[in-house]
Amino acid sequence: MKKYEIAVLPGDGIGKEVVPPSLEVLHTIADVHGGLSFEFTEFPWNCDYYLETGKMMPENGLEILQGFDAIFLGAIGNPQLVPDHVSLWGLLLKIRRSFEQSINIRPAKYFKGLRSPLANPNDFDLIVVRENSEGEYSEIGGRIHSNENEMAIQNAIFTRRGTEAVMLYAFELAGRRRAHLTSATKSNGIFHTMPFWDSVFNEVKEDYPNIDTSSYHIDALSAFFVTKPESFDVIVASNLFGDILTDIGGAVMGSIGIAPAANINLNGKYPSMFEPVHGSAPDIYGKGIANPIGQIWTAKMMLDHFNEEELGQKLLNVIEHVTGDDIKTPDIGGTATTKEVSDEICKRLKEL
Ligand code: NAD
Ligand code: IPM
Ligand code: MN
Prior knowledge:
The chain is α/β, with parallel strands linked by helices.
């Protein structure tokens, strides 16, 4: 029997509402399958923990997490109590960086039973490969002076190593899919980093003659995500562009509440981390109506990561049947609660 040891960080807000039912789904899958089990160890690291201790995680937090097979995270952030850049850089971004989770993969597809806000959505199925360790997200820079002399500098960091790594991953992934890769650029307005991004893309492309490529500026590409998402297969994007594109990906599916993400460590030195695309949604926290699908779909991505793809596909099929039968939370036009959706998913998994 294969046992997976998972560190669980529900985090803040609806993270605390969507993580527990997703763990039940994983336990149910393990029972149905018979050949695997999960051991979950939960850590209460979030903004409340910060208010008590002055830190988002203990000094040895990374050491603790390092021993697990994967990290399963809800969402971090309670901006009313802790500034976002403090909470996110103290936990989520710290883990992504320290654990060299250099790639963030985020699928979006036409989802059975979901009412997309697009009037006539075609059957789309795309995946954004987001650079996850550098780019526009950097601590390099600073603020000086005050009043009219005040200034802030934020440096974007694009290394050849990081840029090549995300491109390679994306080309390989496109080769296993429909062999089309789109690069998200902005080399018309960003003077240094984006022309560099384009030249690395063009260099790497030479080694993949069988992959069809295109390159769009992020502004036009964002619009195409809305007007013709079916024209995309794999999209490779910098940290910030990938972040923005994937909320749009969630939105055109029907809700950001269903979009999943996987932060992948490629060198095997540290665990990878699985989380939904959405945040802690303070506006709906406490009502029991958060959509659990983003969190459950990322459980599917974790199964894929453990080479349990068949099981992962079964789970995704069950999710789609449940939405297809109209058992949906309010964000996607239903009246069901978080628990009703996840209970139904568990029930149907048991019937398989
Ligand atoms: P958000 O994703 O939390 O919410 C945006 C909108 O989507 C809200 O109206 C919310 O109600 C809705 N929504 C999100 N998830 C939903 C779900 N599962 N079901 C139903 N509706 C859902 O984004 P935000 O409001 O910009 O951020 C809130 C907090 O979360 C901030 O502190 C932010 O920094 C943080 N955040 C954290 C993560 C993360 O931990 N990975 C990601 C994004 C934002
Ligand atoms: C995401 C989030 C994070 C990001 C924030 C909370 C730092 O928006 O995972 O999409 O921008 O990476
Ligand atoms: Mn985001």
